[in-house]
Amino acid sequence: MNYTTFNQVHTDVHTACHNLSGGEIRQTRGDLVENLVADLWQSLGPDHIARTQMKHTIDFGDIGTLDIGCDVDLYVGNELRGIVECKAYVDKCFLERAIVDFRYLKEATTVPKIVVGLENAIAENTRKILQHVHRDCLDAVFFLVPGKRSSGRPLYKKEFFKPIDESSYNSLVSFFKSI
């Protein structure tokens, strides 16, 4: 999926949000990121398969098992290549929750684990610290639109809409190609 198509899907979904209510907007925007990530991965080759809402069972022996699922699992054929958590916006609480899930998943697989969000809602220093401290289980964080999220200037409103940043798109594509 090239940048123009990727950005057009983003634009079309946000245009459709103009007629939706609060909960519907949140769901639609969350689904958008998952669909963009899955479609982008699958566009990289005929053997690239994206599976959504998969569960990974981690066995803790005598204490039991734990099922952890992230939004998109990236496969080439039957080989898991990466795990992605997706969000309309990424704030500190969300990033910390993703890190906890990734830490559990580290017990089951060594594939890269990343977060992809439309908007950045986390202080830059906080993101850097979390990525540094948890670099053993969080490989990357990508924000697709430029600038910081503002609840007073929501992306889904026509006057505040921001297109996908082409350099951010290219960074995500490069990362995907590297795995």
List the topology elements.
Layout: H1 3-16, H2 22-42, E1 48-52, E2 55-59, E3 65-69, E4 72-76, E5 79-90, H3 92-106, E6 113-120, H4 124-133, E7 140-143, H5 166-178
Parallel strand pairs: 5-6, 6-7
Antiparallel strand pairs: 1-4, 2-3, 4-5
Helix pairs in contact: 1-2
Describe this structure in words.
The mean pLDDT is 94. This protein has helices at 3-16, 22-42, 92-106, 124-133, 166-178; strands at residues 48-52, 55-59, 65-69, 72-76, 79-90, 113-120, 140-143. It is α/β, with parallel strands linked by helices and 179 residues long. It has a single domain (3-178), classed as 3-Layer(aba) Sandwich (Trna Endonuclease, Chain: A, domain 1). 41% of the residues lie in helices and 25% in strands. A 5-stranded mixed beta sheet has the order 1-4-5-6-7, with helices on both faces.
